[in-house]
Amino acid sequence: MLDVNKFNKIIAANWKLNASFDFIKGYFDQLNIDELKNNENCFIICPPSPYLNSCSKLMNPPVLLGAQNCSKYNDGAYTGEVSALMLAENQCKVCIIGHSERRQIFNETNEDIKLKAENLLKNDINPIICVGETLEEKEGGSKFDIIQNQITNSMPKNASKHNIIVAYEPIWAIGTGLTPSLEDISEIHSFIKKSIKGFDSYKVLYGGSVKSVNSEQIMKLKDVDGLLVGGASLNPHEFIKIMTS
Ligand code: PGA
Questions:
Q1: Which of 121, 186, 195 is nearest to 152 (CA)?
Q2: Atom of ligand 1 nearest to the CA of 229
Q3: Is the pLDDT of residue 39 over 90?
Q4: What confidence score (pLDDT) does residue 35 get?
Q5: Which of 72, 157, 212, 232 has the lowest CB atom count within 10 Å?
């Protein structure tokens, strides 16, 4: 399993429910990874599960393959599920879990996310555990409590700064073009590191409407260890700009 703590910055692409064989071919034809050589950062692309295998054949280090979700079950009568072992056998090194779209649309709980993380670690895959508040929670003043609760209750046994990545994604910023102020991003990242016991040196990514026009400023913030990028990662030229920002 990767020691995620050894990287300087971690930049991950979440393609969500977007891709086709034509899209993938065009994407990797245009993604010039030579621009990424000689640095200490980690780059991850997370396509939909059916395309993991074909993407793995087109991807080269320093870009790694990730998944967007895995089952909390390991095997059995669970129609439609994909296990952590299946992801590992398809060259996945990292897996996003607890994305707000999974929490909100598919009713995933912190307990589900913890089980998924345990399955991933057993299969040598590093989980990216997503947390973030809704607009109502932000406006109601409960964002710190919400984030602390999500982080502490979705961590697997044996979680460490070496095997887990945390991603802070305010739900109201995802896919909306809105981003928190740089001060607000710093405040939350420093809260996670300084106020949640044991998290001082975990890698914490920011996600939510990251584009090449704001990636550099966000990534420069002290407690921001990288980015989780949705929409903007679907354009290989835009994603290269973000990865090199
Ligand atoms: P966005 O998505 O960059 O399109 O806002 C981020 C995410 O959902 O991970």
A1: 195
A2: 3
A3: no
A4: 87
A5: 157
pLDDT at 178 over 80: yes
Assess whether pLDDT exceeds 90 at residue 34: no
pTM: 0.97
Cα dihedral 96/136/214/34 (nearest 10) = 10
Residue 217: partners with Cβ closer than 8 Å, 6 or more residues away: 182
The residue to mutate among 172, 218, 229, 243, having the most atoms of ligand 1 within 8 angstroms of its beta carbon, is: 229
User: Does the pLDDT at position 38 exceed 90?
Assistant: no
